[in-house]
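ok so i was messing around last nite and threw this chain in just to see what happens. nothing serious, just curious
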Amino acid sequence: MTLDHSQTDVVDEEMGITPQDIVVRQQFLVVEDEPLLSMLMEDMLLDLGYRVLGPVACVSEALILLEQAEDVGAALLDFSLRGEQSLEVADALLARGVPFAFISGHGPSVLDGCRHAGSPVLGKPFSVKQFEGLLREVAPLVVSGGSTH
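result:
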């Protein structure tokens, strides 16, 4: 999938920030058990300049990748993964201080009464615009002052 970047030539018109002025978080962990959706999310992340860790389709694979990776900047977690919930992955991300969001066909209500209630949730299906909005919420772009640090 190729995104139409004509609308993102100026990221913040008021401040005059362009994509060349932006440093994005290094890498997104993608945990999604639907192959087509995981490929779509991976393509969208890559098109937006992110690197992708995964995608993986189950909790155990996600925890292994998270343990081995040193530079996870943020994560997108399908809430329901083939009969298991991704809450353990969310716990590990929280312990590392890594921002994350859930993606669910049940929408935000999936977190009602859950220890991660209040975390960002993107309902399926979603549009490119909704996906980009979630990315801004989870891993805000950092304006570079000419330096990458």
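not much to say yet. The two ends are 31 Å apart (CA to CA).
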